[in-house]
Amino acid sequence: MTSRAGLIDVDVHQYLQSVSVRETPAQVRLRAATAPRAEAGMQISPEQGQFMQLLVRLLGARRCIEVGTYTGYSALAVALALPADGQLVACDISTEFTDVGRPFWREAGVESKIDLRIQPALATLQALLAEAGGRSGYDFAFVDADKTGYIDYYEALLPLVRAGGLIAVDNTLGLSSIPVVRLDSVMARAVKAFNAHVHQDPRVEIAMLPVGEGLTLLRVL
User: Fold this and answer.
1) How far is 67 from 122, CA to CA, in rounded Å?
2) 3-state class (DSSP) for residue 145
3) What is the DSSP letter of 82?
4) How far apart are CA 188 and CA 165, in angstroms?
5) Which pTM was predicted?
6) Taking Cα atoms as reference points, which of 70, 22, 25, 20 lies closest to residue 44?
7) Mean pLDDT value across residues 27-43
8) For the chain, which end, N or C, has fewer CB atoms within 10 Å of the first or last residue's CB respectively?
9) 20: exposed, middle or buried (C-beta count within 10 Å: 0-12, 13-18, 19+)?
10) 89 contacts 124 by C-beta, under 8 angstroms
11) Helix H segments across the chain?
């Protein structure tokens, strides 16, 4: 099993995966289908997907949102953790990427749980807020999209996620296995601005974890 090591040593990462990761056959095959792609580093690691599944189950989540789906591994992981009547609204702008994941969602029997919306995520989030049961109607949200939009996505998600619900944000410590504190790119500056934005936000509790390339957990108060 291989994937990006993120911010930890490669041998430690390989050991972590060998003694902790449990994947369904569909998850394994989706990772294999994504691996040859030039931008495959955009996919989350299997241990991060498993951690998110645990969070979803601990929350007793039934309604979730994902901002940034790529080839659908994170959506598959979350959907597998949802109950039979659970739903994940998956936001992306690329059918090229998301079409890779659809057959594996189907294989895993969770395609009906994933409501894929192909348009800019902010438009989808605004539409969800206008729907009946949208405000404070979601239990869990995951953000792994364009970094310059992180603050806007976070602000749009806050009224959608219920009190006690969780917003998880990816890449808050690293980009392409390089710590953001060592980078001065547009994306790195955007991530650091987001980190500063949520650090003292009284509307949430915060924990930043060195999972993958940094996963910030924000519990809505």
Assistant:
1) 9
2) coil
3) S
4) 27
5) 0.96
6) 70
7) 96
8) C
9) exposed
10) yes
11) 10-20, 25-34, 46-59, 73-81, 95-107, 121-130, 150-157, 186-199
